[in-house]
Write a structure and sequence with these properties.
The protein is of the alpha+beta class. The protein contains five helices and seven strands.
Length: 176
């Protein structure tokens, strides 16, 4: 599945609050990866945005076959290749100053490590919900994929980037 498309301009969406309420009513905490539950809740506390989907990012390999596993990678493991399932937060922003401010904040976050973090749109999200955006952790060369196979050394680096990304995202959201 392709996840990345260029950022789109905000459009008028008079139904934002109704869509937000409906989305939050359907949200099931059991579907959120444990390490980012508080981040998803914080996003949804802000009246000018709401989450559509999220994923903590998972590393699947011979020693960890669960596609939803949360175990950290071991520095000294004898593993050659890892399937990385993308870390991301897809959300909808309201078309006004606060939503646009968060949009700018997310662009700045992505700019801190453009080789591994992107702020983008996904066509299939946008078709479902206008003004939807994705903040993702993915090697730039694979920005269009929702999962990739990489060597173990790169997986270790990406795990570090992912962990730091979610710490920074949480800090940014709690400043709002």
């Amino acid at each position: 599945m392709e996840t990345y498309t260029d950022l789109k301009e905000f459009v008028v969406n008079p139904d934002f609050q109704v869509q937000r309420r409906e989305s939050l009513e359907q949200l099931s905490e059991s579907k959120i990866d444990r390490p980012i539950v508080d981040i998803v809740h914080r996003i949804n506390e802000l009246p000018y945005c709401f989450t559509l989907q999220s994923c903590y990012g998972h590393f699947v390999h011979d020693g960890q076959k669960d596609p939803h596993g949360l175990e950290p990678l071991s520095v000294d493991a004898d593993i050659k290749r890892v399937t990385y399932r993308i870390a991301y937060v897809a959300l909808c922003l309201e078309n006004h100053a606060l939503g646009k401010g968060l949009f700018d904040d997310f662009q700045k976050m992505a700019a801190t490590d453009p080789e591994n973090i992107q702020f983008c749109c996904a066509t299939w999200f946008w078709k479902r919900q206008v003004n939807s955006y994705v903040l993702q952790v993915e090697p730039l060369r694979y920005k269009h994929k929702d999962q990739v196979t990489i060597d173990y050394r790169e997986a270790l680096l990406l795990e570090k980037v992912r962990n730091e990304f979610f710490v920074r995202l949480k800090e940014k959201l709690y400043m709002k």
